[in-house]
Amino acid sequence: MRYRIAALFATFLFLTAPTFVAFGQSQQNVPAADQITRLKQQLGLTEQQTNELRGLAVADQQHGADLQRRIVAAHRELNAAVLNGADKDVVHAKSEQLKRLTSQMIDLHIESMERVSKILTPEQRKKLVGGP
User: Fold this and answer.
1) Which domains are assigned to the chain?
2) Helix or strand or coil: residue 19?
3) pLDDT number for residue 35
4) Which pTM value belongs to this model?
C-alpha cells in the first residue's frame, strides 16, 4: 500500500513541478526522465505512451515550477508577517494568497492526472492507483 501511495505521489510531482515544498522548504524531486522510466517499467508503457507522457511533463513542469516558486514566496511572506507581528488583516491577506496558490497547484494536479488517465489503459490506471 505504501508503494502505491508513493507511486501516485511521485506521478503528481513528476507532472506538476520539479520541486515539492513542505513548510516553505524546497526539496529536489527525481528528474522527470527517471520518473517516466519508472512508470514505463511499472505500468508497461508503450513507446507512444512514454512519448506522450514526456510531452505532458515538459508542459506541466514549467507551469508547476512557476506555481511552486510563488507558493514558496507566499509561505515566506506569511511567515515573515506573523513573526514580525503584522496586523491581522495583513496576515489574513497573506494566508488567503497562499490558499489560492495551493488551490491552483491542486487544480494543476487534477488536470495533469486527467490527461495522464487519457493516455493509460484501464489496466495501467488500476496499477497506478493500486487496484488488483
Assistant:
1) 2-127 (1.20.120)
2) strand
3) 84
4) 0.69
